[in-house]
Design goal:
One of its GO terms (molecular function) is oxidoreductase activity, acting on the CH-OH group of donors, NAD or NADP as acceptor. The chain is built from nine helices and twelve strands. With about 350 residues, it is an alpha/beta fold. Strand 1, helix 1 and strand 2 form a beta-alpha-beta unit. It binds NADPH dihydro-nicotinamide-adenine-dinucleotide phosphate.
């Protein structure tokens, strides 16, 4: 299949590109600069131009940003839209977060509808942030699923950078479903809604400072930044980046993924466990915390809640996801310890 992948320079997109190419799909990926394209090209030099090519899209927040990129010969049949800001350096919530997330999503859908009639499926990287209602805390009485929507408001988006990010994912995904309903395009969509994504970094990193946001906590832990106090973990749920990549590809390869959300999940973790794993496996980092370090553990009743929660997904994974269940790798049920992070 001929596939357009947006944001090819990103952490998740790099793994998605890898799966696409290994499965024999031919890919055009968008990046912001030629330099970024060259770095990816270098990493895949054994693939010729027919298999991997690039389109430069400097800013997805611009109207019509994808108007050129959606053209291809042979034409695209699938589009995977991963590009969206995930960072907390937010000065202007609208400009830095909401616009690129929302206009980026509606923009690509408009461009496809207008100019790429062969596209059958658009897969959008959403997030668990678009599902969970953080005000409910761990909500032991509730099992989060694809039925749920984060009720975050425009006003709450302005409160802090984390809210801004969560709002950007919620509003962008909602805008995609609204587009589908109002515009009735000839393509179907699917969204992938992962919680915290960890795993090997295969995209080009200019420096450690440019580490993607979800892997940053592992970096900070290894740098000893949590020596005094380990910060709270947040949602405690994670998935391996390789499984997220597989999910993106399965979501267009499998026809029955049409117009569904997929809450992809491996299990739970705590920041304290990340540190324990680092110390156990890398003795040179044994001093990143000491006996007086506090924090970063599960809330008291969390393990019980989470075991229920994860068990639900494990038991019902296949029926929840139809054929997509087949992509769920046994290894994802293993603990974080067994991952090469
Ligand atoms: P990265 O920061 O590594 O990737 C983000 C990508 O989006 C980069 O390619 C970036 O380009 C591109 N991008 C951001 N803003 C713009 C813009 N204005 N114009 C053009 N390109 C832009 O993060 P991830 O790989 O983690 O994130 C990918 C997707 O996954 C995002 O949609 C994110 O919300 C979602 N997600 C991530 C999770 C995680 O834990 N990592 C969890 C749930 C969802 P450049 O590098 O050039 O800036």
């Amino acid at each position: 299949t001929r596939v357009l992948l947006t944001g090819g320079s990103g952490f998740i997109a790099a793994h998605t590109l890898d799966v696409l190419l290994k499965r024999g799909h031919s890919v055009v990926t968008t990046v912001r600069t030629q330099e970024k394209a060259d770095k990816i090209k270098e990493a895949y030099k054994s693939y010729d131009k027919g298999k991997l090519d690039f389109a430069i899209v400097p800013d997805i927040a611009q109207e019509g940003a994808f108007d050129q990129a959606v053209f291809s010969d042979p034409p695209f049949e699938a589009v995977l839209h991963t590009a969206s800001p995930f960072h907390f350096n937010v000065k202007d919530v609208k400009k830095d977060m909401l616009d690129p997330a929302i206009i980026g999503t509606t923009g690509i859908l408009k461009s496809i509808k207008k100019s790429a009639p062969h596209v059958k499926r658009v897969v959008i990287t959403s997030s668990f942030a678009a599902i969970v209602d953080p005000s409910k805390g761990f909500a032991p009485e509730h099992t989060w699923s694809e039925e749920d929507w984060n009720p975050i408001t425009q006003k709450e988006a302005e409160e802090n950078p984390v809210s801004a990010y969560r709002a950007s994912k919620t509003f962008a995904e909602k805008a995609a479903w609204d587009f589908l309903e109002k515009e009735k395009p000839s393509f179907t969509i699917a969204t992938i809604n992962p919680p915290m994504v960890f795993g090997p970094i295969i995209h080009n990193l200019e420096s450690l400072e440019s580490m993607n946001t979800s892997n940053q906590r592992i970096l900070f832990a290894a740098q000893g930044k949590f020596k005094e106090e380990i910060p709270p973990t947040g949602v405690h749920l994670w998935i391996d980046v390789r499984d997220v990549a597989e999910a993106h590809v399965a979501a267009f390869e499998k026809s029955d993924a049409a117009n569904k959300r997929f809450f992809t999940l491996a299990g739970y973790f705590s920041n304290k466990e990340i540190i324990e794993i680092i110390k156990k496996n890398f003795p040179e980092y044994k001093d990143v915390t000491n006996e007086s370090t506090t924090g970063g553990d599960y809330p008291e009743d969390f393990k019980e809640i989470a075991t229920q929660f994860v068990k639900f997904y494990y038991d019902t994974f296949d029926q929840n996801r139809g054929n997509l269940g087949a992509l769920y790798r046994e290894h994802s049920m293993l603990t974080f310890e067994n991952q090469e992070c």
